[in-house]
Design goal:
The chain is an alpha/beta fold. It contains 14 helices and twelve strands. It has helices at residues 2-7, 25-34, 65-77, 94-103, 118-131, 145-156, 176-179, 185-188, 191-194, 197-207, 247-250, 276-285, 292-307, 321-324; strands at residues 14-18, 38-43, 60-62, 84-87, 107-110, 135-137, 163-171, 210-218, 222-229, 232-239, 256-262, 265-266. The strands form two sheets. The chain has a six-stranded parallel sheet with strand order 3-2-1-4-5-6, with helices on both faces. A six-stranded mixed sheet has the order 8-9-10-7-11-12, covered by helices on one side. A hairpin with a 3-residue loop joins strand 8 (210-218) and strand 9. Helix 6 runs parallel beside helix 10. The longest helix is centred in the C-terminal third of the chain and has 16 residues, at 292-307.
Protein backbone atom coordinates (compact mmCIF):
# COMPACT_ATOMS: atom_id res chain seq x y z
CA UNK A 1 0.00 0.00 0.00
CA UNK A 2 2.93 2.36 0.61
CA UNK A 3 4.01 2.17 -3.03
CA UNK A 4 0.48 2.89 -4.16
CA UNK A 5 0.28 5.98 -1.97
CA UNK A 6 3.59 7.18 -3.41
CA UNK A 7 2.23 6.74 -6.95
CA UNK A 8 -0.94 8.72 -6.33
CA UNK A 9 -1.00 12.49 -6.47
CA UNK A 10 -3.68 13.60 -4.08
CA UNK A 11 -4.14 16.85 -5.99
CA UNK A 12 -5.49 14.91 -9.00
CA UNK A 13 -8.45 12.59 -9.40
CA UNK A 14 -8.26 8.83 -9.02
CA UNK A 15 -9.85 6.58 -11.61
CA UNK A 16 -10.77 2.93 -11.92
CA UNK A 17 -11.56 1.44 -15.33
CA UNK A 18 -13.80 -1.56 -16.04
CA UNK A 19 -13.32 -3.20 -19.45
CA UNK A 20 -9.73 -2.14 -20.01
CA UNK A 21 -8.98 -4.83 -22.62
CA UNK A 22 -11.54 -3.44 -25.06
CA UNK A 23 -10.73 -1.41 -28.15
CA UNK A 24 -12.33 1.82 -26.96
CA UNK A 25 -10.66 1.61 -23.53
CA UNK A 26 -7.39 3.01 -24.85
CA UNK A 27 -9.11 6.31 -25.61
CA UNK A 28 -10.12 6.43 -21.96
CA UNK A 29 -6.60 5.59 -20.79
CA UNK A 30 -5.30 8.37 -23.00
CA UNK A 31 -7.90 10.83 -21.68
CA UNK A 32 -7.13 10.02 -18.04
CA UNK A 33 -3.42 10.52 -18.74
CA UNK A 34 -3.89 13.71 -20.78
CA UNK A 35 -6.01 15.30 -18.05
CA UNK A 36 -3.22 14.59 -15.52
CA UNK A 37 -5.15 12.09 -13.45
CA UNK A 38 -4.38 8.64 -12.05
CA UNK A 39 -5.56 5.16 -12.98
CA UNK A 40 -5.51 3.31 -9.68
CA UNK A 41 -6.98 -0.03 -10.80
CA UNK A 42 -8.63 -1.68 -13.80
CA UNK A 43 -10.64 -4.81 -14.49
CA UNK A 44 -11.19 -7.13 -17.44
CA UNK A 45 -11.73 -10.87 -17.71
CA UNK A 46 -9.28 -10.82 -20.62
CA UNK A 47 -5.63 -10.29 -19.69
CA UNK A 48 -4.22 -8.93 -22.97
CA UNK A 49 -3.83 -5.48 -21.49
CA UNK A 50 -0.20 -4.59 -22.15
CA UNK A 51 -1.37 -1.19 -23.43
CA UNK A 52 -1.71 -0.14 -19.77
CA UNK A 53 2.11 0.06 -19.64
CA UNK A 54 2.07 3.04 -22.00
CA UNK A 55 -0.12 4.98 -19.61
CA UNK A 56 -0.17 3.70 -16.01
CA UNK A 57 2.29 0.83 -15.53
CA UNK A 58 2.07 0.98 -11.73
CA UNK A 59 -1.72 0.66 -11.53
CA UNK A 60 -3.33 -2.57 -10.34
CA UNK A 61 -5.13 -4.95 -12.68
CA UNK A 62 -7.70 -7.67 -11.97
CA UNK A 63 -9.41 -10.35 -14.03
CA UNK A 64 -12.04 -11.18 -11.42
CA UNK A 65 -14.76 -8.73 -10.42
CA UNK A 66 -14.82 -9.98 -6.83
CA UNK A 67 -11.14 -9.22 -6.26
CA UNK A 68 -11.48 -5.87 -7.99
CA UNK A 69 -14.44 -5.00 -5.75
CA UNK A 70 -12.51 -6.03 -2.64
CA UNK A 71 -9.52 -3.94 -3.73
CA UNK A 72 -11.62 -0.82 -4.27
CA UNK A 73 -13.18 -1.30 -0.84
CA UNK A 74 -9.71 -1.77 0.69
CA UNK A 75 -8.52 1.47 -0.91
CA UNK A 76 -11.49 3.30 0.56
CA UNK A 77 -10.56 2.09 4.05
CA UNK A 78 -7.00 3.27 3.41
CA UNK A 79 -8.35 6.76 2.63
CA UNK A 80 -7.61 6.42 -1.08
CA UNK A 81 -10.78 7.59 -2.73
CA UNK A 82 -11.84 6.54 -6.22
CA UNK A 83 -13.36 9.65 -7.79
CA UNK A 84 -14.45 8.19 -11.14
CA UNK A 85 -15.09 4.75 -12.60
CA UNK A 86 -14.77 4.59 -16.38
CA UNK A 87 -16.90 1.87 -17.99
CA UNK A 88 -15.97 0.30 -21.34
CA UNK A 89 -17.75 -3.04 -20.96
CA UNK A 90 -20.37 -4.72 -23.20
CA UNK A 91 -23.57 -2.71 -23.42
CA UNK A 92 -25.73 -5.02 -21.32
CA UNK A 93 -23.32 -4.70 -18.36
CA UNK A 94 -23.27 -0.90 -18.24
CA UNK A 95 -26.22 -0.67 -15.87
CA UNK A 96 -24.62 -2.96 -13.28
CA UNK A 97 -21.20 -1.32 -13.50
CA UNK A 98 -22.67 2.18 -13.18
CA UNK A 99 -24.44 1.12 -10.00
CA UNK A 100 -21.14 -0.31 -8.73
CA UNK A 101 -19.45 3.05 -9.30
CA UNK A 102 -22.13 5.13 -7.61
CA UNK A 103 -22.40 2.83 -4.60
CA UNK A 104 -18.64 3.10 -4.09
CA UNK A 105 -18.97 6.88 -3.92
CA UNK A 106 -17.57 7.54 -7.39
CA UNK A 107 -19.02 9.19 -10.46
CA UNK A 108 -19.45 7.00 -13.53
CA UNK A 109 -18.11 7.72 -17.01
CA UNK A 110 -19.80 5.32 -19.39
CA UNK A 111 -19.44 4.57 -23.06
CA UNK A 112 -22.55 4.68 -25.22
CA UNK A 113 -25.20 3.39 -25.04
CA UNK A 114 -25.36 4.18 -21.35
CA UNK A 115 -28.07 1.47 -20.96
CA UNK A 116 -30.28 -0.56 -23.28
CA UNK A 117 -33.75 0.31 -21.98
CA UNK A 118 -35.42 3.60 -20.98
CA UNK A 119 -36.53 2.28 -17.58
CA UNK A 120 -32.90 1.54 -16.70
CA UNK A 121 -32.28 5.29 -16.85
CA UNK A 122 -35.15 5.94 -14.44
CA UNK A 123 -33.64 3.48 -11.95
CA UNK A 124 -30.17 5.00 -12.26
CA UNK A 125 -31.56 8.47 -11.69
CA UNK A 126 -32.95 7.24 -8.38
CA UNK A 127 -29.49 5.95 -7.38
CA UNK A 128 -27.98 9.29 -8.39
CA UNK A 129 -30.33 10.96 -5.92
CA UNK A 130 -29.46 8.44 -3.19
CA UNK A 131 -25.69 8.73 -3.62
CA UNK A 132 -25.31 12.32 -4.81
CA UNK A 133 -23.06 11.06 -7.64
CA UNK A 134 -23.49 11.60 -11.36
CA UNK A 135 -23.56 9.29 -14.38
CA UNK A 136 -21.68 10.82 -17.33
CA UNK A 137 -22.16 9.46 -20.84
CA UNK A 138 -19.58 9.78 -23.64
CA UNK A 139 -21.42 11.54 -26.48
CA UNK A 140 -18.42 12.68 -28.49
CA UNK A 141 -20.32 13.62 -31.65
CA UNK A 142 -21.78 16.59 -29.76
CA UNK A 143 -18.20 17.82 -29.37
CA UNK A 144 -17.09 17.30 -32.98
CA UNK A 145 -16.30 20.66 -34.63
CA UNK A 146 -18.30 19.90 -37.80
CA UNK A 147 -21.34 18.77 -35.82
CA UNK A 148 -21.14 21.78 -33.50
CA UNK A 149 -20.98 24.06 -36.54
CA UNK A 150 -24.03 22.29 -38.03
CA UNK A 151 -25.97 22.89 -34.82
CA UNK A 152 -25.04 26.57 -34.83
CA UNK A 153 -26.21 26.83 -38.43
CA UNK A 154 -29.53 25.07 -37.80
CA UNK A 155 -30.18 27.14 -34.66
CA UNK A 156 -29.78 30.31 -36.73
CA UNK A 157 -32.26 29.19 -39.40
CA UNK A 158 -36.06 29.74 -39.24
CA UNK A 159 -37.55 27.46 -36.59
CA UNK A 160 -40.27 26.15 -38.90
CA UNK A 161 -37.85 24.90 -41.56
CA UNK A 162 -37.82 21.08 -41.90
CA UNK A 163 -34.66 19.52 -43.36
CA UNK A 164 -34.24 16.37 -45.44
CA UNK A 165 -31.35 14.25 -44.15
CA UNK A 166 -29.75 11.00 -45.29
CA UNK A 167 -27.63 9.20 -42.70
CA UNK A 168 -25.51 6.29 -43.94
CA UNK A 169 -23.05 4.41 -41.77
CA UNK A 170 -21.51 1.13 -42.91
CA UNK A 171 -18.70 -0.27 -40.79
CA UNK A 172 -17.82 -3.73 -42.09
CA UNK A 173 -17.33 -6.51 -39.58
CA UNK A 174 -16.08 -10.06 -40.06
CA UNK A 175 -17.56 -13.34 -38.82
CA UNK A 176 -16.16 -12.73 -35.32
CA UNK A 177 -18.70 -9.94 -34.81
CA UNK A 178 -21.66 -12.32 -34.78
CA UNK A 179 -19.94 -14.72 -32.37
CA UNK A 180 -19.07 -11.94 -29.95
CA UNK A 181 -21.50 -10.15 -27.63
CA UNK A 182 -21.93 -7.47 -30.29
CA UNK A 183 -23.78 -9.92 -32.51
CA UNK A 184 -26.22 -10.82 -29.73
CA UNK A 185 -29.05 -8.27 -29.71
CA UNK A 186 -29.87 -9.15 -26.08
CA UNK A 187 -26.39 -7.97 -25.10
CA UNK A 188 -25.65 -5.19 -27.60
CA UNK A 189 -29.13 -4.00 -28.51
CA UNK A 190 -28.55 -4.83 -32.17
CA UNK A 191 -27.01 -2.80 -34.99
CA UNK A 192 -29.16 0.31 -34.48
CA UNK A 193 -28.11 0.51 -30.84
CA UNK A 194 -24.53 -0.64 -31.07
CA UNK A 195 -23.37 1.55 -33.96
CA UNK A 196 -26.22 4.03 -34.29
CA UNK A 197 -27.11 5.38 -30.86
CA UNK A 198 -24.68 8.32 -30.98
CA UNK A 199 -26.05 9.37 -34.39
CA UNK A 200 -29.61 9.42 -33.07
CA UNK A 201 -28.41 11.43 -30.08
CA UNK A 202 -26.70 13.93 -32.35
CA UNK A 203 -29.71 14.27 -34.66
CA UNK A 204 -32.25 14.84 -31.88
CA UNK A 205 -29.82 17.27 -30.20
CA UNK A 206 -29.79 19.38 -33.36
CA UNK A 207 -33.18 18.79 -34.97
CA UNK A 208 -35.51 18.12 -32.04
CA UNK A 209 -37.59 15.31 -30.61
CA UNK A 210 -38.83 12.24 -32.47
CA UNK A 211 -42.36 12.61 -33.82
CA UNK A 212 -42.50 9.34 -35.77
CA UNK A 213 -40.16 6.34 -35.87
CA UNK A 214 -40.54 4.05 -38.89
CA UNK A 215 -38.38 0.96 -39.43
CA UNK A 216 -37.98 -0.46 -42.94
CA UNK A 217 -35.31 -3.11 -42.31
CA UNK A 218 -34.25 -4.82 -39.08
CA UNK A 219 -31.71 -7.62 -39.46
CA UNK A 220 -28.77 -8.84 -37.42
CA UNK A 221 -26.30 -7.12 -39.77
CA UNK A 222 -28.22 -4.01 -40.84
CA UNK A 223 -31.14 -1.76 -40.08
CA UNK A 224 -32.85 1.12 -41.84
CA UNK A 225 -35.75 3.45 -41.31
CA UNK A 226 -37.14 6.96 -41.28
CA UNK A 227 -37.10 9.27 -38.28
CA UNK A 228 -39.43 12.23 -38.40
CA UNK A 229 -38.04 14.85 -36.04
CA UNK A 230 -39.41 18.27 -35.16
CA UNK A 231 -37.15 19.90 -37.74
CA UNK A 232 -36.00 17.04 -39.98
CA UNK A 233 -37.00 13.96 -41.92
CA UNK A 234 -34.14 11.49 -41.58
CA UNK A 235 -33.67 8.47 -43.83
CA UNK A 236 -31.09 6.28 -42.11
CA UNK A 237 -29.20 3.12 -43.04
CA UNK A 238 -26.77 1.31 -40.71
CA UNK A 239 -24.85 -1.84 -41.60
CA UNK A 240 -21.92 -4.06 -40.68
CA UNK A 241 -22.17 -5.94 -44.01
CA UNK A 242 -19.21 -5.36 -46.35
CA UNK A 243 -21.51 -5.95 -49.33
CA UNK A 244 -23.28 -2.68 -48.55
CA UNK A 245 -20.09 -0.61 -48.93
CA UNK A 246 -20.26 1.40 -52.20
CA UNK A 247 -18.05 0.02 -54.98
CA UNK A 248 -16.01 3.22 -55.21
CA UNK A 249 -15.07 2.87 -51.56
CA UNK A 250 -14.22 -0.82 -51.93
CA UNK A 251 -11.89 -0.01 -54.81
CA UNK A 252 -9.89 2.15 -52.40
CA UNK A 253 -9.52 -0.91 -50.12
CA UNK A 254 -11.70 0.73 -47.49
CA UNK A 255 -14.28 -1.13 -45.46
CA UNK A 256 -16.15 1.79 -43.89
CA UNK A 257 -18.51 4.35 -45.39
CA UNK A 258 -19.92 7.21 -43.36
CA UNK A 259 -22.12 9.98 -44.71
CA UNK A 260 -24.53 12.61 -43.44
CA UNK A 261 -26.22 14.70 -46.11
CA UNK A 262 -28.38 17.66 -45.07
CA UNK A 263 -30.47 19.07 -47.91
CA UNK A 264 -28.13 17.24 -50.30
CA UNK A 265 -25.01 18.82 -48.79
CA UNK A 266 -22.40 16.48 -47.31
CA UNK A 267 -21.36 17.19 -43.73
CA UNK A 268 -17.66 16.35 -43.47
CA UNK A 269 -16.87 14.70 -40.16
CA UNK A 270 -14.66 11.75 -41.10
CA UNK A 271 -11.73 13.19 -39.15
CA UNK A 272 -11.37 15.09 -35.92
CA UNK A 273 -12.18 12.21 -33.55
CA UNK A 274 -8.71 11.70 -32.05
CA UNK A 275 -9.09 14.00 -29.04
CA UNK A 276 -12.85 13.93 -28.46
CA UNK A 277 -12.62 11.53 -25.50
CA UNK A 278 -10.05 13.81 -23.87
CA UNK A 279 -12.32 16.81 -24.42
CA UNK A 280 -15.19 14.77 -22.95
CA UNK A 281 -13.11 14.04 -19.86
CA UNK A 282 -12.17 17.70 -19.48
CA UNK A 283 -15.85 18.65 -19.52
CA UNK A 284 -16.71 15.92 -17.00
CA UNK A 285 -13.95 17.04 -14.65
CA UNK A 286 -15.33 20.58 -14.88
CA UNK A 287 -18.79 19.28 -13.95
CA UNK A 288 -20.19 19.66 -17.47
CA UNK A 289 -20.52 16.03 -18.57
CA UNK A 290 -23.56 14.75 -20.47
CA UNK A 291 -25.89 13.19 -17.91
CA UNK A 292 -28.71 10.68 -17.93
CA UNK A 293 -31.41 13.15 -18.85
CA UNK A 294 -29.49 14.19 -21.96
CA UNK A 295 -29.06 10.60 -23.16
CA UNK A 296 -32.64 9.48 -22.50
CA UNK A 297 -34.03 10.48 -25.92
CA UNK A 298 -31.52 8.40 -27.86
CA UNK A 299 -32.10 5.36 -25.61
CA UNK A 300 -35.86 5.66 -26.18
CA UNK A 301 -35.24 5.93 -29.93
CA UNK A 302 -33.09 2.80 -30.22
CA UNK A 303 -35.41 0.87 -27.90
CA UNK A 304 -38.35 1.67 -30.17
CA UNK A 305 -36.36 0.76 -33.29
CA UNK A 306 -35.33 -2.54 -31.70
CA UNK A 307 -38.92 -3.44 -30.88
CA UNK A 308 -40.63 -2.11 -34.02
CA UNK A 309 -42.06 -4.33 -36.73
CA UNK A 310 -40.30 -3.51 -40.03
CA UNK A 311 -42.69 -2.39 -42.78
CA UNK A 312 -40.37 -3.32 -45.66
CA UNK A 313 -39.63 -1.10 -48.65
CA UNK A 314 -42.63 1.18 -48.35
CA UNK A 315 -42.81 4.92 -48.14
CA UNK A 316 -39.72 7.13 -47.99
CA UNK A 317 -36.90 4.62 -47.44
CA UNK A 318 -33.14 5.07 -47.70
CA UNK A 319 -31.75 4.32 -51.21
CA UNK A 320 -29.29 1.76 -49.80
CA UNK A 321 -32.25 -0.38 -48.70
CA UNK A 322 -32.69 -1.67 -52.26
CA UNK A 323 -29.39 -3.58 -52.19
CA UNK A 324 -29.39 -4.15 -48.44
CA UNK A 325 -32.82 -5.78 -48.13
CA UNK A 326 -32.81 -9.59 -48.01
Amino acid sequence: MCKLKEMISFTNKNFALIGVAGYIAERHLHAIKETNNNLVASLDKFDCVGKIDSYFPMSDFFTEFERFDRHIDKLKREDIKIDYVSICTPNYLHDSHIRFALRHGAEAICEKPVVLNPWNIDALQEIEKETGKKVNNILQLRLHPSIMELKRKIDSEPKDKVYDIDLTYITSRGHWYFISWKGDSQKSGGVATNIGVHFYDMLTWIFGDVKENIVHISQNDKAAGNLKLERANVRWFLSVDFNDVPNGVKQKNQRTFRSIRVEGEEIEFSGGFADLHTISYQRILEGNGFGLEETKKSIETVYNIRNAKPIGLKGDYHPFCINGNK
